[in-house]
User: Fold this.
Amino acid sequence: MIRVSSQFDSGNIVVLDGSNPGDIQLEISKDNKSDFYQWFYFRVTGAKGELCRFKIVNAGGAAYPSGWENYQAVCSSDGRLWKRIETKYVEGVLEFTCKPDSDAVYIAYFAPYSQERHANLISRMLQTENVRLEVLGKTIDGRDMDLLHIGEPGPSKLNIWTIARQHPGETIAQWWMEGFLTQLIDENSNAAKGLLERAVVHVMPNMNPDGSFRGHLRTNAVGSNLNREWLEPSMKRSPEVYLTREKMYSVGVDFCLNVHGDEALHYNFIAGTEGVPSWNGQRQAKLERFKQLLKIYSPDFQTDYGYPPNKAGAANMSFCSNYIAENFGCPAMTLEMPFKDSAITPEPEFGWSPGRASELGKSCVLAIADFYVEQFGTINN
Ligand code: ZN
Assistant:
């Protein structure tokens, strides 16, 4: 007998009718106290060798319906390798078919990133001498807010921040983190070593552990969109931002990458903070230069497609990158990756994937290192 279930870490699906394998009717649940939904993740058992057709009948009302155009869901039988499966979007219904090769397979919007994997990532990082963990406090559901500090602190050191998964369904951002962190502690990387000579890197691998576990797309446990909470965060509505912002004020921010996934666009791109009041030519030049450097290091990164920049003075200051750029007077950028595939470097079997996001994370370390070498010169040990 075929069963569909989602009562596990990051699971999200409602079964409307699972009686006919050729027509399994499903719905995605909304984020708690919010109207957002798009992330789905479920397990199918008892269907080995049988052609199954799944229909998400409320796909048309999702947060980004254009995210379903030319989109393909992912499927895995071991939780490690996630392959794209045949998917189409017709008249508000997302339909995908697969013939499970195992008694239990998983189907998701994008390769999930579990709480357990997060814990393992933290443990692995802490085996390196110059990495420290600081728990900033607790989320509404009682989870730890883990912040990693990489590099020895010092009075003249730069403070570089990277934060991921304010939007929890953008698991892609935490896959990026794995590459970013791996490159940063690579003893054979002169770029990483040089960067850590002049900077401490503060890393939030997952800004929204509650939303992640609950299988949310955009919000925390009480429906707050963290990426829009930066002007007036509160311990009641958005402790994740409140605690992180406090820490930023205590150590400083000289550079920040705010890492996300974009549902609709087939590209990796960076959105700047052009609309903040203090924007000027010098800041524009730094933004352009960083994007150029990243393009040199990553074949998957491009600068032709992305969000149109905000007009002068039109920035929403509750938005994370804008808030940081303005209040810390530093480069702050939003890095977006596709849920679908990278149109300039397509890989149809996997689409944009955990491995590729991780590679982009590595490239970002190299680009940041170069960015500061260009500004301050090489450090000779
Ligand atoms: Zn996002």
User: Anything to note?
Assistant: DSSP finds eight helices and 17 strands in the chain.
